[in-house]
Write a structure and sequence with these properties.
Elements lengths: L1 E4 L6 H15 L5 E6 L7 H8 L4 E6 L5 H15 L4 E4 L14 H11 L1 H17 L2 E5 L14 H19 L5 E7 L8 H4 L2 H10 L8 H12 L10 E4 L17
Parallel strand pairs: 1-2, 1-4, 2-3, 4-5, 5-6, 6-7
Length: 260
């Protein structure tokens, strides 16, 4: 099982790597994995060691995916290390909260360069390998890309564009046997969002909004990604799974009914 995971940090990306390596080991297959990070916090050595303990082969690569040349280099090094590719998980991304009246053009462009463009460039570079393996792409979007999200003026449109890109890739590449899907997380507790949940009142308020009564974990998203990347989803392409504990659909439940 030959796998590329971008944004392979201790959050969703790390959980995805662990899930896929574990499933490969349970199936009696070796996972050959490429993990990318920005490199700002050093290579994910601890994660790589953990994965190798399950029998996986790992290569860690660093670089800024907003740079097209970096995306192409990572694709080339991935194919050289893996000898092909079966699964591409496009997880790298990030937000920059700002109202639309104040968002700068630089922030707008960078949000699209970070949250949309790397998926396209990497997919283009990996297309032949994925066609040969009849492989799959899973992109990590966001519930913010599925509806209006005030204060996320650039991030929400960028994630919406990512969802559209996945649907179009799915249609154009279906004849090549390549499946393309997305997962849209809701509120997930990760190292990047941890500060929010240190404030207990905020954490309780957030939990109370979720019909399932809890904040999601990276493992919740990893399991969904693994399903879409696996044989159980072999007839699914061009779809987006919203993994938000029921939050997005609950809004009308907060509207008071008229008195009896």
């Amino acid at each position: 099982m030959r796998i590329l995971v971008t944004g392979a940090s201790d959050g969703i990306g790390g959980a995805v790597c662990r899930q896929l390596a574990r499933e490969a080991a349970e199936a009696g297959r070796q996972a050959t994995m490429v993990l990318t990070t920005t490199g700002r916090n050093g290579p994910p050595d601890r994660l790589a060691t953990e994965l190798e303990a399950t029998g996986a082969r790992c290569l860690t690569l660093a670089g800024d995916l907003t740079d097209a040349g970096t995306c192409r280099r990572i694709a080339a090094e991935t194919l050289a290390f893996c000898g092909g590719l079966d699964i591409f998980v496009s997880n790298a991304g990030g937000g920059a909260p700002a109202p639309l009246a104040e968002v700068t053009l630089e922030t707008w462009d960078r949000q699209f360069a970070l949250n949309v463009r790397p998926t396209l460039i990497l997919a283009q570079e990996l297309h032949v390998a994925l066609r040969e393996s009849r492989g799959t792409i899973v992109a990590v979007a966001s519930m913010s890309g599925m509806q209006a999200h005030p204060g996320q003026g650039a991030y929400a449109p960028a994630k919406a564009a990512l969802l559209s890109l996945c649907r179009n890739l799915a249609q154009e590449w279906a004849a090549d046997g390549i499946r393309v899907n997305a997962v849209s997380p809701g509120m997930i507790r990760t190292p990047l969002t941890e500060r929010t949940y240190h404030h207990e009142e905020t954490a309780q308020t957030r939990r109370a909004l979720v019909p399932l009564g809890r904040i999601g974990t990276p493992e919740d998203i990893a399991a969904t990604i693994a399903f879409l990347a696996g044989p159980g989803a072999g007839y699914i392409t061009g779809q987006n799974i919203l993994a938000d504990g029921g939050l997005s659909d609950s809004v009308l439940g907060h509207v008071p009914l008229r008195p009896a």
